[in-house]
């Protein structure tokens, strides 16, 4: 198996810093099923290419199979799977590029945090769905995608095409994001894994895809394939993406009943489905938006700014209500704002509606005069993404400088996490903390004392008598404002 990653960033040899692998060295990494070798075919200031070659030993692959792993039997020896990119390569890549995949680079932190021009080539990639599926998976992530079907035999074109593609990706991307895209999508395109899919695969998927899978138009298909169509795990993963994510399509109930049965019949060890109809659940992300919209209307707000607007779902619902005469959205992520513009169809938005909307990039930790002048500001699932030492700066910017009449803040209630199946740790890999109800109340009280507000609390979602609601909401109003 072979994977190459190239860059023309200047100097291109900085790729070695990002990967924590020196361009002048050939390195080997032992895997339970073979050996991964990493080397640089070219390394100049203008262009640098790293190659990861995985040499699979079929005998070792059989011997390393755990008690819970699938039994490929003789197929280990006679098929072509060891020679085409698959979950074997994804696992090796995660091992070799562990630090780069996490986005850490002490020597070049600014380089790790920003996109660089990248070209990724996979000469042979199993793709159940053909080149068109590769385009559907990679293009929404910002990749210029070339996927060419590999013929069964170039000497006999009448035999048709194989299920393999030659894949070339080009784009300006953070290296960590690029590696995580591949880690998730290689086995998804192959539609197979070489190891048993256990419940901890949900955590792996959320960790690798949490920053991009939530907004992907094919997230339901990607999730089902990644989890080997095990419906219990798929439900858990979609639940965490749709309910626990910050701005996600509601996919939890998106799979039709007939397709569920078809998937269950096709997958081994898939749990039988309950024949009784389950009530349709409204995802927590939707409940949050409903609660915020209702509160804004009850407060009589007419101008609203969404601080940390993400991909713009709340902005769209605000714009749909003419009562909100001016709507603004701000986010520190340029990529999120690009998704927001696409979601809101800014290029086709009617002039009257476009005149009510402003979108701009900014950081909540720095004073920005564009934050001021609104009746209300909302921070929906935002503060938990802020490092605790920087919360004071956010408070100062929002409550001290911008100082709208009302501020609505929602954040997860960590006490409710025990109610989520297969959830270990925090709800999202980017969360810096999650507060109990008492901790959130204490922070709100401090904000009120420092900046002259009063606060009321509202539950969002089912208010569990033991652990409280999944989301807690604080509604701040300037003290003395009726």
Automatic annotation (TrEMBL):
Claim: Ion transport is one of the keywords in the record: no
GO biological process per UniProt: regulatory ncRNA-mediated gene silencing; RNA methylation
Catalysed reactions listed for this entry: small RNA 3'-end nucleotide + S-adenosyl-L-methionine = small RNA 3'-end 2'-O-methylnucleotide + S-adenosyl-L-homocysteine + H(+)
Molecular function GO labels: metal ion binding; RNA binding; small RNA 2'-O-methyltransferase activity
Residue ranges annotated for the Methyltransferase type domain, each copy included: 305-397
Keyword Transferase on entry: yes
Hen1 N-terminal domain mapped to chain residues: 1-242
Origin superkingdom: Bacteria
This enzyme's EC code(s): 2.1.1.386
Annotated keywords: Magnesium, Metal-binding, Methyltransferase, RNA-binding, RNA-mediated gene silencing, S-adenosyl-L-methionine, Transferase
EC primary class: transferase
InterPro entries: 3'-RNA_MeTfrase_Hen1_bac (IPR024026), Hen1 (IPR026610), Hen1_N (IPR024740), Hen1_N_sf (IPR038546), Methyltransf_12 (IPR013217), SAM-dependent_MTases_sf (IPR029063)
Reported cofactor(s): Mg(2+)
Family statement: Belongs to the methyltransferase superfamily. HEN1 family.
Name used for this protein in its record: Small RNA 2'-O-methyltransferase
């Amino acid at each position: 198996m072979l994977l190459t990653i190239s860059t023309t960033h200047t100097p291109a040899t900085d790729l070695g810093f990002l990967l924590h692998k020196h361009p002048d060295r050939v390195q080997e990494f032992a895997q339970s099923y073979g050996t991964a070798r990493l080397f640089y075919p070219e390394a100049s200031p203008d262009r640098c290419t790293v190659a990861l070659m995985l040499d699979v030993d079929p005998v070792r692959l059989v011997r390393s199979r755990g008690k819970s792993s699938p039994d490929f039997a003789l197929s280990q020896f006679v098929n072509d799977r060891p020679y085409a990119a698959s979950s074997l390569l994804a696992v090796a890549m995660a091992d070799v590029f562990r630090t780069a995949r996490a986005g850490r680079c002490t020597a070049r932190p600014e380089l790790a945090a920003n996109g660089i021009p990248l070209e990724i080539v996979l000469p042979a990639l199993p793709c159940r769905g053909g080149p068109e599926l590769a385009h559907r998976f990679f293009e929404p992530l910002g990749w210029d995608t070339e996927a060419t079907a590999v013929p069964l035999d170039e000497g006999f074109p009448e035999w048709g095409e194989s299920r393999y593609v030659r894949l070339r990706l080009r784009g300006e991307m953070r290296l960590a994001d690029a590696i995580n895209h591949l880690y998730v999508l290689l086995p998804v395109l192959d539609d197979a894994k070489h190891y048993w899919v256990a419940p901890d695969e949900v955590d792996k998927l959320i960790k690798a895809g949490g920053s991009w899978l939530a907004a992907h138009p094919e997230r339901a298909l990607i999730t089902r394939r990644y989890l080997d169509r095990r419906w219990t795990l798929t439900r858990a993963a979609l639940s965490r993406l749709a309910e626990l994510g910050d701005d996600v399509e509601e996919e939890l109930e998106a799979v039709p009943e007939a397709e569920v049965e078809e998937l269950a019949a096709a997958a081994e060890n898939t749990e039988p489905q309950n024949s009784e109809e389950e009530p349709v659940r409204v995802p927590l992300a939707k409940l949050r938006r409903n609660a915020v919209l209702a509160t804004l209307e009850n407060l009589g707000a007419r101008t609203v700014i969404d601080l940390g607007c993400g991909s713009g779902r709340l902005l769209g619902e605000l714009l749909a209500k003419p009562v909100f005469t001016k709507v603004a959205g701000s986010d520190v992520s340029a990529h999120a704002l690009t998704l927001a513009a696409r979601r809101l169809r800014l290029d086709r938005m009617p002039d009257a509606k476009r005149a009510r909307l402003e979108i701009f990039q900014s950081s909540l930790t720095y004073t920005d005069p564009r934050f001021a002048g609104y009746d209300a500001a909302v921070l929906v699932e935002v503060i938990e993404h802020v490092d605790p030492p920087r919360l004071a700066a956010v408070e100062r910017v929002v409550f001290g400088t911008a100082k709208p009449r009302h501020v609505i803040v929602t954040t997860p209630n960590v006490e409710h996490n025990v109610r989520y199946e297969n959830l270990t740790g925090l709800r999202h890999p980017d969360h810096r903390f999650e507060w109990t109800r008492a901790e959130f109340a204490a922070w709100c009280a401090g904000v009120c004392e420092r900046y002259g507000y009063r606060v009321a609390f509202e539950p969002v979602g089912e208010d569990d008598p033991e652990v409280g609601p999944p989301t807690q909401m604080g509604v701040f109003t300037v003290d003395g404002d009726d």
